[in-house]
Amino acid sequence: MTDSRPVVTRFAPSPTGYLHIGGARTALFNWLYARGRGGKFLLRIEDTDRARSTPEATEAILKGLTWLGLDWDGAPVSQFEGRERHAEVARQMLDNGSAYKCFSTQDEIETFRETARAEGRSTLFLSPWRDADPSTYPDAPFVIRLRAPREGQTVVRDAVQGDVVFGNDQLDDMILLRSDGTPTYMHAVVVDDHDMGVTHIIRGDDHLTNAARQQQVYQGMGWDVPVFAHIPLIHGQDGKKLSKRHGAVGLHEYATAGYPAAAMRNYLARLGWSHGDDELFDDAQAMEWFDLSGIGKAPARLDFKKLEHVSGYHIGQMNDADLMEEIAAYLRETGQNPLETVQIARLEAILPVLKAKAKTLPALLEQGHFALVARPLEVEEKAATALDTVSRGILVELTAALQHVSWVREELEAAAKQIGESHGLGLGKIAAPLRAALAGRSSTPSVFDMMLALGRDETLARLQDQAG
């Protein structure tokens, strides 16, 4: 399936809540497809449901996309603001015969359906006004309905699902314009996608049935039909439709859990799409490789262990300056205080050590806790057991010995080793009281890495606090 027009994709969320992880993946697929082909990625807010649409939800969606690192071209389009254009197209379809006025009331439609049910017939409403003589039109409210074909088939040529065939006897004459002059969502979507020049509609396969009816609107107006690509939904690890019982479903929950945005882009790209056996990649590779043919037909399964693996890889690969920015953004996202100058300096010094093992940003900060706390340290109960009388005496000796060594790892290790040997102890035995004194904890990075990050003065001060 080919399309010679410049690629234009879109993401069109409804602002009725937070940005769902499935929506975030849909946005990512559209962004990758457009950016990888030098095309445009547009954003439309489908806010026609005025009762449920809120500015706060719109803001949450924009914030989520920005956090994820997806940029869009131009200003976001409001579907509601295009309602006059939607009505205009419905009237054009009246004029060209691809739509008609229907004066049937809700009571009449329900009576039709009840009778059809009683007689065992299809309850698909067949309007008596479809071929009525305009001279018989009453002076009454009416809707504008699509004049859908009654016979034959509508075939949606889908880049993911293949050809999907719908019997036209199963598709009704859907309403385009309500009696109050407002457009239906199904009609507005087609008009907006046409006017925005969208060439590829990449969205969840829960919209597949909509595609058949929307395709008929394109054909009714004589417009080019975009390439459809309906992607399977995301399921939980148990294979069932994703819900809150599976864990985080809102994108914001992943931000507050401390997964870097680059890791989320990598992980979400692999949810339902593949490029050979490649699991770990950057944005440039994703843009180069991403294609609709790589999207599978089966639902993807959310796997938090795999996400942690991807997250750890990206944290390890990130340069220190970018990682510090990610940490600052994480602290803002979770409402924590920004780091002070001395904390930043110490954390930057230990960052190469921390990022080699951390799977998430909070895990990294947990291991770097020693660099963020001020004296006097609170010593955790487990760590305090290492500070007995003998250990405190060793800390006194070590403090004295470290006064005069060069502050490099080899000399720090040599000094500690010498003190340990004088007591018949290996380095491992004196590491526990050192951890307690330097970090107040029993699980920390190497004591020598901590010494280097803290510097001479802070290290000696912390040792002196616990010596005696």
Automatic annotation (TrEMBL):
KW Ligase (keyword) present: yes
Domain Glutamyl/glutaminyl-tRNA synthetase class Ib catalytic: 7-308
E.C. number(s) listed in UniProt: 6.1.1.17
Residue interval(s) of motif 'KMSKS' region: 241-245
ATP-binding is among the record's keywords: yes
GO biological process: glutamyl-tRNA aminoacylation
Localization of this protein: Cytoplasm
Top-level class of the enzyme under EC nomenclature: ligase
Top-level taxon of origin: Bacteria
UniProt motif 'HIGH' region: location: 13-23
GO molecular function, one term: zinc ion binding
PROSITE patterns linked to this entry: AA_TRNA_LIGASE_I
Residue stretches making up the Aminoacyl-tRNA synthetase class I anticodon-binding domain: 325-465
UniProtKB keywords: Aminoacyl-tRNA synthetase, ATP-binding, Cytoplasm, Ligase, Nucleotide-binding, Protein biosynthesis
Reactions that this protein is recorded to catalyse: tRNA(Glu) + L-glutamate + ATP = L-glutamyl-tRNA(Glu) + AMP + diphosphate
Binding-site residues, ATP: 244
InterPro entries: aa-tRNA-synth_I_cd-bd (IPR045462), aa-tRNA-synth_I_codon-bd_sub2 (IPR020751), aa-tRNA-synth_I_CS (IPR001412), aa_tRNA-synth_I_cd-bd_sf (IPR008925), Glu-tRNA-ligase_bac/mito (IPR004527), Glu/Gln-tRNA-synth (IPR000924), Glu/Gln-tRNA-synth_Ib_cat-dom (IPR020058), GluQ/Sye (IPR049940)
Gene3D superfamilies reported in the protein's UniProt record: 1.10.10.350, HUPs
GO CC terms, sorted: cytosol
Assembly behavior: Monomer.
Function: Catalyzes the attachment of glutamate to tRNA(Glu) in a two-step reaction: glutamate is first activated by ATP to form Glu-AMP and then transferred to the acceptor end of tRNA(Glu).
Protein family according to the UniProt entry: Belongs to the class-I aminoacyl-tRNA synthetase family. Glutamate--tRNA ligase type 1 subfamily.
Protein name per its UniProtKB record: Glutamate--tRNA ligase
